[in-house]
Amino acid sequence: MTKVRAHVWIEGFVQGVFFRSYTRDRAMSWGVKGWVRNCPDGRVEAIFEGDKEAVERIIRWCRRGPSEAEVKDVQVEMEEYTGEFDTFSIRYF
Predict the structure, then answer these.
(1) Does the structural domain 3-90 have CATH classification 1.10.1740.10?
(2) Is the pTM of this model over 0.85?
(3) Is residue 15 classed as helix, strand or coil in its secondary structure?
(4) CA distance readout (Å), 26 to 31, 33, 40, 65
(5) Is 60 labeled as catalytic in the residue annotation?
(6) β-strands 44-51, 70-79: how paired?
(7) What is the DSSP string of 43-57?
């Protein structure tokens, strides 16, 4: 399996709707490692690492988010896979 890393920013009404918690739950269930956090500018930022198919799946999910969210844009930058994470976590600034 090909391992990949994606740096993602989600824009819209994405804070205060449990976006980070839902992202963590899905990442862990799909075997994706990394982190997610709220940004001061109102976006949500995440690093996803894992099998290419699983990372693509969670990015697709981020384009919708939880039912309470209103995602307007998702920016994705593919980076070099590092394998530095043991799990998926919520970070706080």
Answers:
(1) no
(2) yes
(3) coil
(4) 8, 10, 24, 11
(5) no
(6) unpaired
(7) -EEEEEEEEHHHHHH
The sheet with strand 3-13 has its strands ordered as 70-79, 3-13, 44-51, 33-38, 88-90
Say what angle helices 52-62 and 19-29 make with each other, to 10 degrees.
Answer: 160
Q: In terms of DSSP H, where are the helices of the chain?
A: 19-29, 52-62
Per-residue pLDDT, averaged over 12-22, amounts to: 97
Q: Which of 5, 20, 43, 57 is catalytic?
A: 20
Active-site hit among 5, 24, 38, 43: 38
Per-residue model confidence (pLDDT) at position 1: 82
- Mean pLDDT to the nearest integer, 62-91: 97
pLDDT in tens, 23-73: 999 999 999 999 999 999 999 999 999 999 999 999 999 999 999 999 999
- Name the residue type at position 26: R
- Examine the residue annotation and report whether 24 is marked as an active-site residue of this protein: no
